[in-house]
Design a protein that fits this description.
alpha+beta; single chain; about 180 residues; 3 helices; elongated; four-stranded antiparallel beta sheet
Amino acid sequence: MKNLLIILALFFLGSTSNEESMTWNESAKLTWADFKATPNLESDAVALTASGITFGYSVNTSGERIVDFSTSVEAHFYPSKSWYIQDKGNAYILAHEQLHFDITELYARKFRAQIKKLVVNQNVKDQMNRLHAKINEAVNETQKRYDAQTNHSMNREMQKEWEITIQKELREFEDYKSL
């Protein structure tokens, strides 16, 4: 057997693997010091969290047949593309931004769960790529819905509901969390 192919794909802002990033970690929460980009003062937002899912895989072959595969899926935060307005940033807004990163981790877990169900076959690469595309669409839609429903954290009641829901879902996918 030999490694036939390694593909790395990155979701969000066309970042490269050389770019500074932080991998999601249950015990390490974001701080304002992690937000290193210049704030967009023309935006109505107080802060922006740039996060995404990296995905890579390799397949092992015997002759021309795929006999096994391995994957890597991680949720990342990108400090050089994340910003906040210093005099408006507070703990409440930081918690809103942290939940954006937590949502990214939730979808990384869902992606890992879907990959685990795949059976080795000659179409496994296409299947993984389709799953990756669907997860990217789903995380994008959820991030937009989160900001819309919370009015970018202004709706405190809805913000609390989202926090409870995302924490519950993270627990449901505990077996697939980032290490």
